[in-house]
Write a structure and sequence with these properties.
The protein is built from four helices and nine strands. The chain has about 190 residues and is of the alpha+beta class. The protein has one domain (about 5-185): Jelly Rolls. Helix 2 (about 20-25) crosses helix 3 (about 30-40).
Length: about 190
């Protein structure tokens, strides 16, 4: 199931009577990119979505909720995952990866779990920072994780835990598909 987050962002912006330019000025993204996201032409990477959520003072999970009642637990079957694809960079270039939300109904979470699939080697090494911490576990393939000036090679089964302000970036090390369990906190 692919999930549409653009409408939620547009609703937040309009509820606050903000222009695209005003949101762009505060988030550091271009008005064109904000418009593309709102119109579901592209979906933001997790770091971009986190920055937008922080600006609007909502949790990332807000973009995946559909008027759900509070729950003490949640089971998400593989066929029920919310897929966010067509991920695009701040500069308007595609990144070649998708992510699947592993928790969509549990409200007020302290962490956001995702499965990130990198489908091609990334040459654009734009890095993003956001508040919180991240945990990455490579489930298949070989990943390169950029943390500041360091490039760390991770094989299937390897994990890394870091402060998100380190401007992380996830890449395919060898151009082959990589699947990573990512857990992000605010």
């Amino acid at each position: 199931m692919e999930y549409n987050i653009g409408e939620k962002i547009k609703e937040l912006r309009k509820a606050r009577q903000l222009t695209l330019q005003a949101v762009a000025n505060e988030t550091g993204f271009s008005p064109a990119l904000i418009s593309q996201i709102e119109n579901n032409n592209v979906s933001p990477p997790i770091a971009t979505l986190s920055k937008i959520a922080r600006f609007f003072e909502v949790k990332i999970s807000h973009f995946f909720e559909e008027g759900d009642e509070p729950r003490r637990y949640e089971v998400v079957r593989v066929d029920d995952r919310r897929v966010v694809s067509r991920v695009i960079s701040k500069a308007g270039k595609g990144h070649g990866y998708t992510y699947e939300a592993l928790s969509v109904h549990k409200l007020n979470k302290k962490m956001e779990p995702f499965v990130v699939t990198v489908t091609e080697r990334i040459t654009d090494e734009t890095m993003y920072s956001h508040d919180g911490e991240e945990f990455l576990l490579v489930m298949s393939g070989t990943a390169a994780v950029l943390l500041g000036d360091e490039r760390i090679k991770l094989e299937a089964g390897d994990a890394v835990y870091f402060d998100s302000s380190m401007k992380p970036r996830l890449l395919s090390y060898d151009g082959e598909e990589v699947q990573v369990l990512a857990i992000v906190t605010r």
